[in-house]
Design goal:
heterodimer, A: alpha/beta, Rossmann fold, 4-stranded antiparallel sheet, 30% helix, B: mainly alpha, 2 strands
């Protein structure tokens, strides 16, 4: 059987995770995660709550202090690096809680993440074309935005940095269907521009519209994977895994 | 000297008291208000540094008064040993103490980050005792004098009252510094980084910002402000090892009243409470030592987050 934890597009991976383990204090959350993400791919991590999806993203960016195994981001080994070093390699996180700073204006939020790869980021005009709602709200306080606007700002601000490998944690969570569609369309645009994306999603219908590959996590390990084209064929299995 | 109110007649006890009160002249009132504002200036500068440190590091820096004291001693040292006067001290004492603060943060304070708030309290309190003890063993307890710089000596004649130039300078300079710091935090890119790192340090790290170094610099900056206040205070209060311990209790009360996280709150409250303290000294001197703490108790009962603090 094809190993679906590895993608098919040629060239070195943008992300290669091997035997990744992670702990929060005494809790052993990840028990040996193996997968990779190829350049330009959009891979979605599916799984129940508590499976370890967010912990995986946080471990890749270095926010989980206690980790072991091998994580290579854009070719560099990052298992013992500090988060600020890992980010500077060209990876950016859009966290589940969005993390919009309330004590900053929208504009300050947008310009906060430093440029980690000069020249590779999107120009501010392009970003505001992708997210026209934000252009009108530049002077507002960060806390005054709606959920959808916050999600857009959380994605917009990492596009400026030049990071080409994006990690999105549940971008559609808690949003109205219309907004979810907008975000889906935006992510499709980003794929066209060549961004590599690793996404955690509970809403696999939303993910199906944009992902190249699905990986299923359970109890801190990847237990299955299939190409997006094979989603319908795997629907029953998926329902079992996710308990829906 | 023109009295504020016409002389009262009668020998009632209350009338006698009113008599004494009524004899306060504009000059005397002005002098006391100025002293109040000066103390307020020190409170503002010190509580500003404390608020910035508390925001970023979440520790209550009990060593703040000690750094204030070291700043004043730096000024004395620079004059007596290096022959460098007040204006040099204004620049280099904060730099030197800032460096000391950076080393302190790296060596000690870093290691208790994220632990119970009690550890920060104990550690910085211990550091304060050590610093005070070192200076006390070297220089004894009696105050050293530090001269007012020649450019700022003498009186300022405002017509309706005469004030010492140096004291007016202290108030104006402190207000300007506080304003510049506030502007830097609220309106600049570095200020935005500071505010963001105060709110969510891990996420700011995940964006590629070296937050640990920011924390060191923030602590250094906060105590440098304390040292600046120490240089300003040296010609007025004299320089002695306990000067930090003497002032720190009131500064904490100021920060509590203003709201622990609020920069603006610390500054406004600092000046205001200093002024109130000065006013109390004029009209009811016995209460002047405790008025700040009475206000603190009232504020804690009515609005525990502080006047400018964000309600929990």
């Amino acid at each position: 059987m094809l190993d679906m934890t590895r993608g098919e597009t040629p060239g070195p991976s943008h992300l290669a995770v091997s035997g990744l383990q992670a702990w929060y204090g005494e809790s052993h959350i990840l028990h040996g995660v193996d997968f990779d993400v190829r350049p330009g791919e959009l891979v979605t991590l599916l799984g129940r709550n508590g499976a370890g999806k967010t912990t995986t993203l946080k471990s890749i960016i270095g926010l989980v202090r206690k980790r072991a195994g091998s994580v290579k981001v854009l070719g560099a080994q990052t298992i013992s690096l500090a988060p600020e070093r890992i980010a500077r390699l060209g990876v950016a996180l859009c966290p589940e809680e969005r993390g919009i700073f309330a004590s900053l204006t929208v504009k300050e939020n947008l310009f906060l993440p430093p440029v980690v790869a000069p020249g590779k980021g999107l120009a501010i005009e392009r970003i505001l074309t992708l997210f026209p709602n934000l252009a009108e709200r530049m002077g507002s306080g960060g806390s005054k935005l709606s959920g959808g606007e916050q999600q857009m700002l959380a994605i917009a601000r990492i596009l400026r940095t030049g990071a080409r490998f994006l990690m999105l944690d549940e971008p559609s969570e808690g949003l109205a269907p219309v907004i979810i569609q907008q975000i889906g369309a935006t992510i499709r645009e980003l794929k066209k521009e060549g961004f590599t994306i690793l996404m955690v999603e509970q809403n696999f219908r939303f993910a199906a519209s944009i992902a190249d590959r699905f990986l299923v996590m359970e109890h801190g390990k990847i237990i299955d994977g299939f190409a997006a084209a094979d989603l319908e064929a795997n629907m029953d299995k998926l329902h079992d895994y996710l308990g829906v | 000297m023109r009295p504020l109110y016409p002389r009262a007649r009668g020998d009632d006890e209350s009338l006698l008291a009113m008599n004494a009160l009524a004899h306060i002249t504009t000059q005397q009132l002005g002098q006391q208000l100025l002293i109040g504002l000066i103390n307020g200036a020190f409170y503002a500068l010190l509580s500003l540094g404390l608020a910035v440190i508390f925001g970023m590091l979440s520790i209550v820096n009990f060593a703040h008064g000690a750094f204030f004291m070291v700043g004043a001693f730096c000024a004395v040292f620079m004059l007596k040993v290096l022959g460098l006067g007040y204006w040099w001290a204004l620049v280099f004492a904060p730099l030197a103490v800032g460096l000391l603060g950076a080393v302190t943060e790296r060596l000690f304070i870093r290691h208790i980050a994220g632990l119970d708030v009690l550890y920060g309290l104990l550690l910085t309190f211990g550091l304060a005792l050590v610093m005070q003890g070192v200076f006390q063993s070297q220089f004894g307890s009696s105050a050293m004098s530090y001269p007012v710089p020649p450019a700022l000596q003498g009186p300022l004649n405002l017509g309706f009252m005469i004030l010492p130039i140096y004291r007016v300078w202290v108030v104006v300079f402190s207000a300007v510094v506080c304003l510049l710091v506030w502007l830097a935090i609220e309106r600049t890119k570095i200020g935005a980084l500071l505010r963001a790192a105060t709110e969510n340090p891990s996420l700011v790290r995940a964006f590629g910002v070296d937050v640990p170094s920011m924390i060191t610099l923030t602590y250094a900056f906060g105590v440098a402000l304390a040292a600046l206040a120490g240089v300003l205070a040296a010609p007025i209060l004299g320089v002695q090892p306990q000067m930090g311990a003497n002032i720190i209790a009131v500064v904490f009360a100021v920060v509590v009243v203003g709201g622990m996280g609020s920069i603006l709150g610390s500054v406004i409250t600092g000046f205001t409470l200093g002024l109130l303290e000065g006013l109390t000294k004029v009209f009811y001197p016995e209460a002047s030592n405790i008025v700040v703490f009475v206000i603190m108790a009232v504020v804690l009962l009515v609005r525990p987050a502080g006047l400018f603090g964000r309600a929990a």
